[in-house]
Amino acid sequence: MKNSLYVLFAMSIFFACKPKAESQSSNNEPVITLDEGTLKKIDVHAHFKHAREYLPAFFEKWNMQAVLVDVYREDEVGIIRSWDNYLTHVQTYPEMFSLCSAIIGVGIDEPDYAQKTIEQLSKEIDSGARMVKVWKNFGMVTKDASGKYIQIDDPRLQPIWDFLKSKRIPVMAHIGEPEQAWRELDPQNPHYGYYKEHPEYHAYNFPEIPSYETIIAARDNWIEKNPDINILCAHLGSMSHNVDMVAERLDKFPNMYVEPAARFGDLAGQDSDKVKAFFTKYQDRVFFGSDYGNSTPQDSLSTTQLKEEQQSLDANYWLLWNYLSGTDSLEIRGQKTRGLGLPIDILKKVYYQNTVNFLKLK
Fold it and tell me: Which residue intervals define the domain Amidohydrolase-related in the entry (predicted)?
């Protein structure tokens, strides 16, 4: 997850400008570009950990809701989660936010690990969790007592999947990282900045971390073994550099869905016509997600900083909206591209209806 917003604020004035009401696509068909409040939207992958006074009006302007996805990780201090913050947000703004719980593999060797995890999930589902997230801890970070990295298809996790199946709770899976994580840093790659800032996830520097192919294979095996659980693969299943790889899995696994949070730069680096064809073919299985959020308490920021944060957030949502709905030239994470110009019926599905159906929202 990347809590910081990935488009520089210096660009916000340009991207915050509203597009024209109508433009021409590459084949001269008119493309209607609507304002931010016209269509209902759900950001299925958000991390607004701390409250902001501006958020209710902001989400109302965008006609948007968000799923708050728990961050559950272990560091030198211990286990860190966002769950309590998110639960408070949902209780305060039930019409604006929904909840996604999470699990971690720490303690998997303990005989009661699965039961304790199920008890945690049962409580959090009762509190409103609509989905459960598994993170790249599986495969890349957390090890068992033997020193082996715990893969997502580990049989010791199966009782948890069986429980979620019985509750008809879907799973959001952020398994693996972009392929760039296993390569030398490339300034031309859209993930260059992230791995410069987060070297702990630059697998190239840690040869003991399993290969990209190993982690993706384990993820595929897990999906295949659990056909009765709907699985939303975050970040386009860590295959965002190649929509053909994503399409191959969607064709193979009918219980798999995807969202492109923090991977729009990868899409922008591919041919726009090809990416549009991907969205068109899988229009019922692609959701809108951003990975946007915050990690700093409001009282730690000045009035000016909060205003800049809001403007930057607005600019970033506009950038993604322009990419999906418009046909103008733009740039995402250093990748120059052209907007997809998706028709309104597909935009309605991607931005809203697919998530409603998946999470059984009202």
Answer: 103-311
Establish if 343 belongs to a structural domain. yes
Q: Residue 278 belongs to a domain with what CATH number?
A: 3.20.20.140
Determine the Cα–Cα distance for residues 153 and 292; give it in Å rounded to an integer: 28
Enumerate the β-bridge partners of residue 46. 68
DSSP state at residue 20: P
Cβ 37 vs Cβ 81: under 8 Å? no
Other C-beta atoms lying within 10 Å of the C-beta of residue 146? 6
- pLDDT tier, 38 (very low <50, low <70, confident <90, very high otherwise): confident
**Interatomic CA distance for residues 195 and 203, integer angstroms:** 9
Sign of CA dihedral 159, 250, 180, 260: negative
When pLDDT is averaged across residues 320-343 and rounded to a whole number, the result is 97
Kindly state whether residue 133 falls inside one of the protein's structural domains: yes
Query: How far is CA 67 from each of CA 47, 63, 98, 125, rounded to the nearest angstrom?
Result: 8, 14, 5, 14
Domain membership of residue 138 (yes or no) is yes
Contact 344, 328 (CB under 8 A): no
Structure-block tokens of residue 143 = 């090890």
Residue 299 is which amino acid? Answer: D
Structural domain of residue 188, as residue ranges? 9-359
Domain count, the chain: 1
Residue keyed to tokens 């053909």 = 244
Q: Name the residue among 13, 27, 20 with its Cα closest to residue 326.
A: 20
Backbone angles phi, psi at 185, to 5 degrees: -60, 130
Question: How many other C-beta atoms can be found within 10 angstroms of the C-beta atom of residue 264?
Answer: 27
**Which among 6, 46, 23 has a CA at the least distance from the CA of 340?**
23
Three-state secondary structure call for residue 192: helix
Contact by Cβ (8 Å): 263, 234: no
Residue 97: CB atoms within 10 A of its CB come to: 23
Q: Look at phi and psi of residue 252 and say left if phi exceeds 0, alpha if psi is from -120 to 50, else beta.
A: alpha
State pLDDT tens for residues 233-274: 999 999 999 999 999 999 999 999 999 999 999 999 999 999
**Which token pair is 91?**
């209780």
